[in-house]
Amino acid sequence: MSAPPDERIGFRTIGYRNVSAVEAVRRIAAAGYDGVEVCLEHPGLEPEALTDGACAALAQVAADAGIALATISYHGDRDPLELRWERVLRAIELTPAFGCNVLIINSPRPGPEAPADLEAQFERRLAGQIKRAEALGVTLALEPEPGLLVHGCDDMRALIDRMGSPALAVNLDIGHAFLTEDDLSGAIAMLGGSIVAAHFEDIAGGVHRHLVPGTGEMDLPRVLADLRAAGLVGWLTVDLFDIADAPDEAARASLEYMRRLVAG
């Protein structure tokens, strides 16, 4: 199956967390990627620290380097809940300033440390986030993740149905889905046109550790075919986060594999 004409490959800045966001964007461009996902956990890019002008300046850095800003993401995994809610709203406000219209988010982690009403609190806050996203023309692409409140694809499908807004969509991290789903192809088909972006990595041994694509156990050609059949035409973004000591090598190896993958 040949690649759709606008299927493009991106890389997340968090893999370059030991350097500035500007340097990360330039090095991802130098590696040959089509686009970059700007992660608002990157040091210096915390949502409350950013202005519209700073976002536009980083977008200009990307343009000057010949790379697109593909998506924006904010994963508040280490943030207290109140700060997390504030940062999501601020990230929604900032997404258009980057020249993007997709913001990738996730859900909080349940457990003994979490409030008893975590699910109700999350959905109440999400409803407000969706309302603001609708007003700004931003799509919130929520990413299911093992162990989080929205753990798997069934959780995601049910949430989309409950919230009832086209502004809520899915960023499918295929490694996460490999770990949570008994039938990955069926899960992708179930989410269908709600998938607006995908994170790519590989997984081995049932361990939630993101590996360079092509070095684990996943049938990535099958996954890509399933995503295409489900209607995804857009960004395929490599998501590696344990590579900060040698990010260029991991980025280049990932791109080499991804180019072969999309070419079929």
Textual characterization of the structure:
With 264 residues, the protein is an alpha/beta fold. It has one domain (8-263): TIM Barrel (Alpha-Beta Barrel), CATH 3.20.20.150. It contains nine helices and eight strands. It has helices at 21-31, 52-65, 81-94, 118-136, 153-163, 174-180, 184-191, 220-230, 247-263, and strands at 8-12, 35-39, 68-73, 102-105, 139-142, 168-173, 195-200, 235-238. An eight-stranded parallel beta barrel has the order 1-2-3-4-5-6-7-8, surrounded by seven helices. Helix 1 packs parallel to helix 2 and helix 3 packs parallel to helix 4. The radius of gyration is 17 Å and the shape is globular. The protein starts with 7 loop residues before the first strand and ends with a helix.
